[in-house]
Amino acid sequence: MGLLKHLGKHLILELWGCDSKALDDQKGIEKMLIDAVKACGATLICVKTHKFSPQGVTGVAVLAESHISIHTWPELGYAAIDVFTCGEHVNPEDALPTIKSFLKPSNFEVIDIKRGNIVD
């Protein structure tokens, strides 16, 4: 019997008590996404963000290795982030300090899911 491997890692981030100004800063979130991509060693294809009225931002960094996405609720101090990567050269955990530094959450939960489990 072979070893169990996975094709990708999917980190689901629950961030509470975030800086409400950061959660509503479209340009800042775009920069955070780009910096997070660099930090984890992924290859950026493009970034798209959208600012909602009266508040909130959604965004995605499309990667050769998958994606990093964010949805914010400034009125609640909450952000939902996915960091989904595949490939041996990418470490999604390395994106977390960049995200924490920008959003400054008081409560940070990471749900770590292995995607595409295979026996090698």
UniProtKB/TrEMBL annotation:
SUPFAM superfamilies: S-adenosylmethionine decarboxylase (SSF56276). Catalyzes the decarboxylation of S-adenosylmethionine to S-adenosylmethioninamine (dcAdoMet), the propylamine donor required for the synthesis of the polyamines spermine and spermidine from the diamine putrescine. It catalyses: S-adenosyl-L-methionine + H(+) = S-adenosyl 3-(methylsulfanyl)propylamine + CO2. Heterotetramer of two alpha and two beta chains arranged as a dimer of alpha/beta heterodimers. Binds 1 pyruvoyl group covalently per subunit. GO terms for cellular component: cytosol. HAMAP family: AdoMetDC_1 (MF_00464). Its cofactor is pyruvate. Gene3D superfamilies: 3.30.160.750, S-adenosylmethionine decarboxylase domain (3.30.360.110). The active site is at S66, H71, C86. Pathway: Amine and polyamine biosynthesis; S-adenosylmethioninamine biosynthesis; S-adenosylmethioninamine from S-adenosyl-L-methionine: step 1/1. Belongs to the prokaryotic AdoMetDC family. Type 1 subfamily. The record marks E65, S66 as: Cleavage (non-hydrolytic). Is synthesized initially as an inactive proenzyme. Formation of the active enzyme involves a self-maturation process in which the active site pyruvoyl group is generated from an internal serine residue via an autocatalytic post-translational modification. Two non-identical subunits are generated from the proenzyme in this reaction, and the pyruvate is formed at the N-terminus of the alpha chain, which is derived from the carboxyl end of the proenzyme. It is an enzyme of class 4 (lyase). Its EC number is 4.1.1.50. The keyword Acetylation does not apply. One of its GO terms (molecular function) is adenosylmethionine decarboxylase activity. GO terms for biological process: spermidine biosynthetic process. This is S-adenosylmethionine decarboxylase proenzyme.
